[in-house]
Structure formats: C-alpha cells, structure tokens
Amino acid sequence: MVGAIVYQLTRNLTIDEIEKSGYDKYFVDHTTGIYPSSAAGDPFTAAYLQSKGDPITDIHENLAAEQKARTTYDNILRFCEDPDVTDAIRFLRAREVVHYQRFGEGLRIITDKLDDKNFYDFNPAFDKCGCEGEKSGKKELKAE
User: Is there a domain that residue 64 lies in?
Assistant: First the structure.
C-alpha cells in the first residue's frame, strides 16, 4: 500500500520536479513503477520474512515486525502533511497495532499450552535436537 501511495504521488511529476526532488536515480531504474525498497534504497528481500519453525520464536518475530512497521509509519507521519497520505498511513498504523495485539493473544495461547512452563518461553515438545532425556524415542533439551 505504501508503494501504491508513492506511485500516486509521483506518477505525474515533471522531469524538472524529478531532478529537483532527488527522485531521478529511482526514476532512471523504475520510472514511476512500484519497486519495493527501503528508504535507503535497499531492495526488498525474502530475508525480511523470518521463520524458524518454532511457534514461540516465529510469533516473537511477528510481534517485532508489527512494531517495526508501526515505527516506520510513525516516522512517515512526522514528515508528511498531505492528508490523503496521512489518512492512509494512519489506517495502516492502526492495523499494525491490531495485528500486534492478535499476535500477543496467540503467544498467550501458545505459552498456556506448553508442557513445561519456564522463564525462557521454550517448549521442549518442539525441540528435536536430541540433547538430553528421552521422549517418544527422541532426546529432548531440558530447560534448567
């Protein structure tokens, strides 16, 4: 959605406006097409989507992603005064807050269902490393 907003704001720029705004380097490579990248110009990569296959680790990653997105929207709002843009960004920001709350509820459900309660949010039932102990023929890591 942010890419679509950028496109809407830049699609009718004149060459003079493109040069004066510093948008010329982007324009040379992508015209006004949507090309997902960071503010520094780093292209989007699947490395931004982290998954370990452990529900606790993955949900913490999701929680962090929602907070990072919210912070990015807060930073955009600090620089922007266009109501058409700020309204959309405020909507996206509110959505991140709701997602964070839902992921938090999911984390609570996961931790309530753990077979061993402990400080580290680690569930031995999910660990297949074979470190110590026996359960169903497989060794499991025991939390101290």
Answer: yes
